[in-house]
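Hi again,

Forgot to attach this to my earlier email, sorry! This is the prediction with manganese (II) ion bound. I've pasted everything inline since the attachment limit keeps bouncing my files.
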Amino acid sequence: MTPIDDTHDPALRSWVESANDADTDFPLQNLPLGMFRGAGETGVLRAGVAIGDQVLDLHAAAGAALLDDAVAASLGGQLDGTLNTFMALGAPARQALRSALSAGLREGAPRQADWQRCMHAASSVEMGLPCRISDYTDFYAGIHHARAVGKLFRPDNPLLPNYTWVPSGYHGRASSIGVSGQTFRRPRGQTKAADAPMPEFGPSKRIDYELELGLFIGRGNALGEPIAIERSEDHACGVVLLNDWSARDIQAWEYQPLGPFLAKSFATTISPWIVTLEALAPFRSPFTRPAEDPKPLPYLDSADNRERGAVDIGFEVLLQTRAMRAAGLAPQSLMQSNFRDAYWTLAQMLTHHASNGCNLQAGDLLGSGTQSGPRPGQGGSLLELTDGGKTLLTLASGEQRRFLEDGDSVVLRGRCTRAGYRSIGFGACEGTVLAALTG
Ligand code: MN
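Structure tokens for the complex follow:
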């Protein structure tokens, strides 16, 4: 697994002053990758790295000979507006880039004026998708969510018997994935009230969010060649926050027998910066299970996975209604949870996905499933926080919610914190529900 090295030294400071703020998501120890262009521009997206409140243009840095030839060559394919080619190179290329950036951006580094000319204020750029996402799969690795939602549908049997054995997932829709700032129309679809004789077609009345982590694949595998769990993280690039927007009334009517379909495919929002596996190295934790639960089958088990398969990522969900925005009120926190509590690790999900020979490709996205915590009030969706829409959530503004209203914005946040290491964050993953299409 990814080693801890001098790029994680908590004493490192950057000559980019804002990167030294205690609260920044993007200190020198993070260095997440994304694609950007000037706000309002229409040109091709450029590869960048977030540092404090700045974005470093990697092409410009390569062009100014600030990166050595091998690192510059690894970025050479990026002028197509995606990171896929670089991601496919895997960990060695990411680690070489990380080392070069860590050296060039730290205090006392030479050629600071040259680096500075490759920087843009983050407030002056807009972010695009970091890569071309050919396939998107959403897992169901949050057991507290699975149990809470299962209880709503099957009070006597909340967790299906395969849950503790199989990392379940469904194949999601890649074309409707957008980055933070995404807006989408409230979808229309078929719904059926329990006591209605037949379904109706119209705007969903139960729009919800799901707090998830997204894993981007780096190096792919050939069709027919599974990925052993001991090597699964060689195929992972990094993670983002992911909001799997869900229309619960459409979902309830359509989900049997083949699972989610139009209830999920209308929009998915991710945070724009890929936090690399290298940046996450200090925040790894042991993967544990309750003693009474089955041990994972051998193909989903390894010493490394047991010792540090989990990742300690603190999550938060915030809501800002249209009225709150108009009144200048900040988004209100609804809950907090931690990715440590996931029932399956990233390595297990990745290995399971390829275990039948399915080929994963650079830029494929794997969602973690909703990351609810074990305690009441830690539901990662409104479905849980309002007990299936039966109770009302009262906001500080005095407004109440069962599900999302038009104009509501949901913000996901994530942050890794561990004593002895510099905290890193993800930036915002924000999306807004607009009124339904009419007609
Ligand atoms: Mn989901």
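The domain at 136-434 is CATH 3.90.850.10 (Fumarylacetoacetate hydrolase; domain 2). The chain has two domains: 6-127, 136-434.

That should be everything now.

G.
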